[in-house]
Design a protein that fits this description.
This protein is α/β, with parallel strands linked by helices. It has 15 helices and eleven strands. The chain has a single domain, classed as Amidase signature (AS) domain (Amidase signature (AS) enzymes, Alpha-Beta Complex), CATH 3.90.1300.10. The chain is about 40% helix and about 15% strand. The longest helix is centred in the C-terminal third of the chain and has 20 residues. The protein starts with 16 loop residues before the first helix and ends with a helix.
Length: about 450
């Protein structure tokens, strides 16, 4: 293949999804070349990063060759994907990282996998996850920047694989902060769409009113590319950074922030202000101070129902924290659940109403700070839970490094159903916020 001069010395595994898509479309890169580059990176790095639960190199190379013989079947033609192992695929097991479902093969794709596969994507394999994307057994995955630290969770393997340049795109899911927090810890971009924008059919759920499917990439263009196939139309309205009104929301849980989180948020705000954006502190009114507790009550109540089948049929193999969920060890009451639902309904309407002439987007932390040390934890979701319960779209953007030289991100938040607009704003703001892409690539590739 004849790569463009700017790509001649580059390993295809380092290409973002949007860069690779352009090269695939013009036949400057084949799907097989891209897949082989990803597999080589996995062979070299995954003994440490441990992002994958199921992967068959011979099978995916054969699939890549088959795709290379076909005309492009969609916007994602030839792009490799990682799929979190709570999401069904017809060709790989869906184990939930649980001994209950070890090597269980469902035999059909989840709706979200069907959409990307039908748009030409190649499913590379299944990525490691916290058990049932909830609690219990942790993923074995490590942080690409320091294997002594967590990559976050529960979308542990997906975040680590994209962050380590092993695959350009991957699915994650979020109930609390399981998608956006790993984006922060692994120095990548993540889109958590408006709740309900992406079908959850074929995805194991722990909360009917919280669980949301999202995707990772290495640029906002990657997120937009995927959004288009999910009928989230690209907003091509020009975004002018100068005069854009940004609400800097330290959120009601600011007490949990760490030095890395402070630096990431302040750095993003300072850069955007220097570019002409209008940065104003956004202090949410009193009802929002109760959202974190409401999220916990709802998650406890719905989780108890979700894991009851395993509790009844496979008690000995079910992790104790999930048994505790069914047994309601926190003492959460139906009255608290109802209060949580009512509070969320109220706050969603109030939050959406903030946007307009006085507010274009909210800027807030993605995590308390850097990825914690140890694989016994996936980090604290305290800076994500309110936004998950509000049901609006989130976009995670890398925003520098913390004291231990690990990535830390920030989140852009919009009102419900504003995914197209939020991604357009993120595309305009990301080059200003994320000035460390070359440094991340250099650190991981030497």
């Amino acid at each position: 293949m004849n790569y463009s001069p700017s790509r001649m010395s580059a390993d295809p595994a380092t290409f973002s999804a949007s860069q690779a898509a352009a090269l695939l479309k013009t036949k400057q890169l084949s799907c097989e070349e891209l897949v082989r580059a990803c597999l080589a990176r996995i062979a070299a790095r995954d003994p440490v990063v441990k992002a994958w639960l199921s992967l068959d190199p011979d099978y995916v190379i054969a699939r890549a060759r088959a795709l290379d013989k076909l005309p492009p079947t969609g916007a994602l033609h030839g792009l490799p994907w990682g799929v979190k192992d709570v999401i069904d695929t017809f060709d790989y097991p869906t184990t939930q990282n649980s001994p209950i479902y070890d090597q269980l093969k469902i035999g059909r794709d989840a709706a979200c996998v069907g959409v990307v596969r039908g748009s030409g994507a190649l499913i590379l394999g299944k990525t490691d996850t916290v058990e049932f994307a909830s609690s219990g057994r942790k993923a074995l995955s490590t942080n690409p920047y320091n294997p002594a630290h967590t990559p976050g969770g529960s979308s542990s393997g997906s975040g680590a694989a994209v962050g380590d340049y092993q695959v350009p795109l991957a699915f994650g899911t979020q109930t609390g902060g399981s998608h956006i927090r790993p984006a922060s810890f692994n120095g990548i971009y993540g889109h958590k769409p408006t709740w309900g924008r992406v079908s959850r059919e074929g995805v194991r759920m722990s909360s009917m009113t919280l669980d949301t499917i999202g995707w990772y990439g290495r640029s906002v263009d990657d997120l937009i590319l995927v959004g288009i196939v999910f009928r989230i139309a690209e907003d091509t309205t020009p975004i002018t950074v100068r005069g854009l009104r940004i609400g800097l929301c330290r959120s009601p849980v600011w007490h949990a922030i760490e030095p890395g989180g402070v630096a990431a948020l302040d750095s993003a705000a300072a850069k955007l202000s220097a570019a002409g954006a209008i940065i104003e502190e956004l202090v949410l009114p009193e009802p929002f101070t109760r959202m974190h507790a409401a999220h916990a009550a709802i998650m406890a109540g719905e989780g108890a129902a979700s894991f009851l089948p395993e509790y009844v049929n496979a008690y000995e193999k079910l992790a104790q924290p999930l048994r505790d969920r069914v047994e309601n060890s926190t003492g959460s009451t139906p009255e608290q659940w109802l209060q949580g639902y009512a509070l969320a309904d109220r706050c969603r309407v109030e939050f959406d109403a903030l946007f307009g002439p006085a507010l274009d987007v909210v800027l807030t932390p993605s995590s308390p700070g850097e990825a914690p040390e140890g694989l016994h934890t996936t980090g604290n979701a305290i800076f994500n839970s309110m936004w998950t319960l509000l049901h609006g779209p989130n976009v995670g953007i890398p925003s520098g490094r913390g004291p231990k030289n690990l990535p830390v991100g920030v989140t852009l938040v919009g009102p419900r159903m504003s995914d197209s607009r939020l991604l357009a704003i993120a595309k305009a703001l990301a080059p200003i916020i994320d000035t460390d892409e070359a440094g991340r690539l250099s650190q991981l590739w030497g």
